[in-house]
Description:
The structure is a homodimer. The first copy, chain A, is mostly helical. Among the domains of chain A are: 1-38; 39-102, Winged helix-like DNA-binding domain superfamily/Winged helix DNA-binding domain (Arc Repressor Mutant, subunit A), CATH 1.10.10.10. Chain A has helices at 3-37, 41-53, 58-65, 69-81, 103-112, 114-124, 129-158; strands spanning 56-57, 85-89, 97-101. In chain A, helix 1 packs across helix 2 and helix 3 (58-65) packs across helix 4. Chains A, B: This is MarR family transcriptional regulator.
Amino acid sequence: MSSDNRVNSALLESLTHRLQRYGMRSVLFQQNMAQKIGVSHTDLKSAEILNETGPITAGELSKITGLSTGSVTALINRLEKSGYVKRERDQLDGRKVMIMPIPERQEQIKSHYQSLSMATKELCSAYNEQELILINQFVEEITKIMDKENNKLMSERER
Amino acid sequence: MSSDNRVNSALLESLTHRLQRYGMRSVLFQQNMAQKIGVSHTDLKSAEILNETGPITAGELSKITGLSTGSVTALINRLEKSGYVKRERDQLDGRKVMIMPIPERQEQIKSHYQSLSMATKELCSAYNEQELILINQFVEEITKIMDKENNKLMSERER
Lengths: 159, 159
C-alpha cells in the first residue's frame, strides 16, 4: 500500500464518520425545530417532504415516510387542521386526492430555518466557485446514496 | 453584481437546499434503521450519541438530546434492558453515575450501517486527496454550524 493510499484511507474513514455525525446533528436539529414550532417530529418531517415534492397522494407520502396508510391519514388530518396542507381532487384524474402544501404556511416553516440557512451561506461564501461546484456535486451524490439506502430499508420492510 | 457573483449566489442557494435535502434523508434513514433494528427512533439516536461521546451522565445525555430528566431515565432503563448500555459509578467521583455504552452491542448497530458506509466510501474514493481534504473540512464546518444552531434552539427552550 502506497503512502498515498494510506492517507486516503484515513481520509475516507474520517469523512464517513463525519457524515454520520452530521446526519445525527440533522436529526437532533429537526427534533429541536419541531419542538420550537410546536408540531411533532413526524409531522414536521412530512411537511418538509411535501414542501420538496409538491402535491402528492396519501399513498405516495406513505411510501416516502414509511408510515402505514392509517398513520398517514391521521397525519394529513393533523396537517390539514394546522393549516399546512389541504386535500384537493386531482384535476386530471378525479379519483385521485392530492395533498397540497399551503405555500404561506410552508414559508413560515422556512422562516424558522433562516438562521441555519444564513450560517450555511456564510460558510459557503468562503469557498470559490470551483470548490462550491465540487461540494455541491458531492452533496448531491451522497443524497442519492441515502435515497438508495432508504429505498432498500423500505423494500425490506415490505417483504 | 458581477456575473461571477451571480453564479456563486445560485451555487449557494443550490448547496443550502441540497444540504437540507440531505439532512431530511438522514432523518428518514435513522427512522428506517430504528424500525429495522426494532428500537424506537429516540432510543437509536441516543445509542448513537453515546457511541460518539463515550460514557456520560444522564444529565449530559438529557442536555444533548433535549429530553427531560424523567424521559432520559426511562430511556436509559430501556437501553440497559436491551443491552446497549450499563450504568456504572464513576471511579473518580463516586456520586456520579455514568452511562457506559456496551461495545459489542454498539458494534451490532454499526454493522447495520455497513451498507451505507461502503457506498459512502466508494463515492469518496472517486475523489483525489486534495478534494477529500476540502470536503472533509466542509463537513466538519457544517457540523459545527449545526451544533451551534442546536444549542441555540435548546437554550431558547430552557428560557
